[in-house]
Amino acid sequence: MLLRQAFLDFMEKLLRNGMDGVELYHREDDAMEVLVRERKVEKLEESSSRGLGVRALKAGRLAFTYTTDFSATGLREVEETLDSVLSVIEPDEHNLLAPKEEVEEVDIAAADDAEIGPHWLTEQAREMEQSALQVDGVKRVAEARASSRRSSVWLANSNGVELANTLTAYSLSVEALAEGADGLEQAYSYSVRRLRRELFAPKRLGQEAGSLAVSLLGGKPVASGERTVVFTPLAAGQLLSFLAQALDGEQVNMGVSFLAGKMGEAIGSELVNLREDPLLPGGIESALWDGEGVPTRRKDVVAQGIIKYYFHNLYSAHRAGMEPTGNAQRAGYSGVPAIGTYNLHILNGTTPVDELLAEIDDGFLVHDMMGRGLDVTSGMFSAGARGWCIRQGKVAEPVSKVTIAAQMLDLLHDIDGVGDDLDLTRPFYAPTLRVKKMMVAGQ
Predict the structure, then answer these.
(1) Cα separation values, 138 from 133, 135, 399, Å
(2) Rounded to an integer, what distance in angstroms lies between the CA atom of residue 158 and that of residue 127?
(3) Which of 17, 19, 11 is nearest to 59 (CA)?
(4) Stated pTM of the model
(5) pLDDT of 370-407, one tens digit each?
(6) What ranges do the domains of the chain cover?
(7) Among candidates 39, 96, 20, 412, which has minimal Cα distance to 231?
(8) In sequence order, what are the beta bridge partners of 374?
(9) Fold of the CATH domain 118-215
(10) Residues 296, 287 contacting (CB under 8 angstroms)
(11) What is the pLDDT of residues 305-319, one digit of tens each?
(12) List of residues 6+ apart from 390 with CB closer than 8 A
C-alpha cells in the first residue's frame, strides 16, 4: 500500500502527542453493478471509495473519526477531532485495542483476479432474466442484478498489529413474478461467491426463481392450529440469523437477550448444532482476522443443543470477563467495529429431506418468512410465512398469508429432524429443519 509509511508515521505522531494507543483502518473499495429489466440496462453503476478510520485511546477514553483526505491538512484535522472527542467522553475500562497475535496462515480463497466489466455483468443479468421468462406461468422479471466488488483492507495499531488482505465478491440475483387466477406471486434466487468461477450459472438461477414463483401461485391460508413445521434451507437460514442476534455478546452483557446467562445450558434439542467457520475456503464471510485484528478461529457455538460461546469483540469480551472470540466486524472505514459472525451455519444432518416429510400427515413447509421475526429480549418468535402444505408425507398445495409463532426456546427444543441438504456454496447456511409442533395462524 502506497500510503503505508505515511499512516505509520501519523500513528507515531499521535503517540508522541499523548495518545496511549492508536488503531488505523484503511479500506479501498471498487464496485460495479448492473440492473437489467426487459433486456435493457436500467442501471449501470460504478463506485470507488477509500478512507481511513482512526481510533485513539487515552486514559481509558476511546475516540473515533475517519477521513478521505490523506494530506497533511486532512490528518491534522483528524488529530484535532480526536482531541475534541476525547475531551468530552467518559473513560471506560473496557476500551481496548487488539494485542499482537499470530494469525493462522490458511488459504481461504478470498479473492481472484477475474477481469470483470459491464459487458460481462450485463450478459449474466440478461441470461437470468431470459431463463426466468421461459418458465411457464412467469409474467415478468422484476429485476435481474449482477455485481462485483474488490476490497483492500489494511489494519495496524500501536500494539504491533499490522495486517492486510484483499477480498472479492461477485453476486447474481433475479426476482421473478408469476401470474395466476388469484394474482401475482414473487420469488427470487441468488448466488454470492468470492471467486467468479464459483458463481451459479445464471440460467439455473433464473429457472429456480421462475419455478418457485409458479409453485407458490394460488396460496391460501390454512386453518389455524398446531402442526409440524418444516423450514427449507432458505427459511432455516432466516431462523439462524435471528438466533445469531440473541448470541451477540453485547446483547447478553446488557441482559436484553433471552439467552443471557445460559452458557453451558441446553437451549435446544441435541440436533441443534451451530458452527462458525471463518476459515472456510471460498466462504463469502471467511476472514483470517476480524475487524479489530483479532485472529479468527473455527468454533462450535452450540453443540448438541448446549451453548458453548457467545459472540464477542474486544469490548464486550472484556466487559464479560471472557476472551475475545474474533467476532468484530466493520462495514467500512467510516464505522467502529460491531459484533458479527463469519460463516455461521447449522451443521448438516443425516436424514434425506423426503424422509423428513414422509412422517408428516398434516404439516407446513415454509419457503420464506417476513415481518418482525424474533423479539431478542423475550425470545418470542413470530413471522409471516408462505410455502406449501404437507399432506401424507408429500408437498401439496401452496400456502400464504399465515403467521407462525413459538417461544424460540420451545422451537429449538422441538427440532426433531435435520436434513442432509446443507450447501455452504449458498448463503443460507442451513439445512432443512423439522419442528414437531408450532402454532400456525391462518383462517
Answers:
(1) 6, 6, 19
(2) 50
(3) 19
(4) 0.95
(5) 987 999 999 999 999 999 999 999 999 999 999 999 99
(6) 4-30+39-86, 118-215, 225-240+348-441
(7) 412
(8) 381
(9) PmbA/TldD fold (3.30.2290)
(10) yes
(11) 999 999 999 999 999
(12) 228, 230, 357, 360, 362, 363, 364, 365, 396
